[in-house]
User: What shape does this take?
Amino acid sequence: MVKSLPTRSEVTIDETWNLQDLFTSEESYQSALVELEKEVDAFCTKFKGSIKDAHSAEEALKGYAQIYEQFVPIGTYASLAYSTDQTDSDAQMRSAKFGSVSANLSSKLSFVDSELLALPVEILEDAMKQSSEFGHYLKKLIRRKPHQLHPEVEKTLAAYSSSFGGPYELYNTTKMVDLSFEDFEVNGKKYPLSYVLFEGDWEAETDTDVRRAAFESFSNQIKNYQHTTAKTYDMKLQIEKTTSDLRGYDNIFDHLLFGQEVDQSLFNRQIDLIMSELAPHMRKYAKLLQDVHGLEKMTFADLKIPLDPSYEPKITIEESKKYMNDALAIMGDDYLNMVNRSFDERWIDFAQNKGKSTGAFCSSPYGVHPYILISWSSRMNEVFVLAHELGHAGHFYNAHKKQNVFNSRPSLYFIEAPSTMNEMLMANHLLENSDDPKFKRWVISSIVARTYYHNFVTHLLEAAFQRKVYDRVNAGHNVNAGILNDIKRGVLEEFWGDAVDITPGAELTWMRQPHYYMGLYPYTYSAGLTISTQVSKRILEEGEPAVEQWLEVLQAGGTKSPVELAQMAGVDITTEKPLRDTIFYIGELVDELVKLTEEIEAVSTT
Assistant: This one.
């Protein structure tokens, strides 16, 4: 039976990350915060009102970059310390204080962009030519010019930035602090429940009675917070709509996609093609799961079960390190050195504890090194999760070496390509090293169920849900729990058809995902995986030349648009072909699973 989670103070220190690489003590953190405020005041005294020409623009940006580099580790420390234990009152207050200080300093610094944008375009273009370091920043700034508001308005909006982030903080506090779960019972036996235990263990539990009971209990308990969560989400939506209107965008989609440097056609294509053309393949996969497990009916609570539980071995953290080394060796010595350092120098937080953020993420503060959060449950499929996050780490490890603090981060549209690339490399490695049909089936089912299901189904259905929500908000309407439940249920039923029974509680999955507070983020998972699927095929076929080209893409950071980055990697995302090819590939994987299952069953009956 799964045990209750320990408190943060009870976990083994070797399974936690080392935040001392950011600040050696609380005192050094607080000193850095005070010093940052002084530096900002000195910068404002020196440059405010003085940005008049190309030379003064470049000088101001040099100082601005230095300020920003000081900002990053301070904000990262506050955020990461809070993410590992959101019940810690000190961490709560530290994070809240940084939010307030950050909003105040951002308000003071808002003059930089305002004064730059007040200059004639000709001067900005001249500054671009003179400065190789800040040319790309200025190029992006010119693109923003039509949507820039009066300097005092920009200053005011910056001052409210912490408040605008309030809905996300409210969501996390409700989810990780206030929401508690009672044990659930099956056949007289009690089982502990929490967000981490449900998403890390019970969703993939092979005992159908326990799995479905966990789903029902979990859904019933989060349902108690549906109205508060819906109101919180609506608050975020209305902030985005108001900002879109203030800045003069034609609609909220244009506003949210502007920073991604893509238009609505790329956004809509991912959703439309996957909803219509991937759905039949995934329905076939759901039917296969149903047949293999002998289920009378396939329900939403059954979609995360492994195809073959006997090939879901336990794996230690140390063993996972060897898998990473073997699978990612193709990326070269420098990349592999980064992987090993992440284990040896405690860049990764593996611990499971109460109050820890759910899921997994990678934070890559400029000037330090990446940090990865994951709650290690020892399931073999977590080698894919860890490979994914190390893909983010490797991306920014490379970008930070070549780009300045303003140029290192690419468009959100591209952000999931390097992470899902590593999942593909892990899958290729596992397939190459075994001819055992059962193991091969496990690997392919992991690709389908973990890599593609997670990124092409779970997150894409979030995107389809988002699009319907934003259509409503764009038309001037609000949302509540009932409306959100109806929209979510409708999206799930449209995708799964009659292959899956959308049982009560499935409609509440909109409550579980923090991505909704990050704009149009969920669809980018399938966009990134579309790119990485095509590039991983090139790496398999061409080897080192394709790897070198991919490393150049990672090192380009944010200096190119998503279309340009994909083109560097040999993929043309201005057409439907990469996405159609990827969907076709998923269909081939599902067909291979059906074939392998038939072969295995035939052997077992002879």
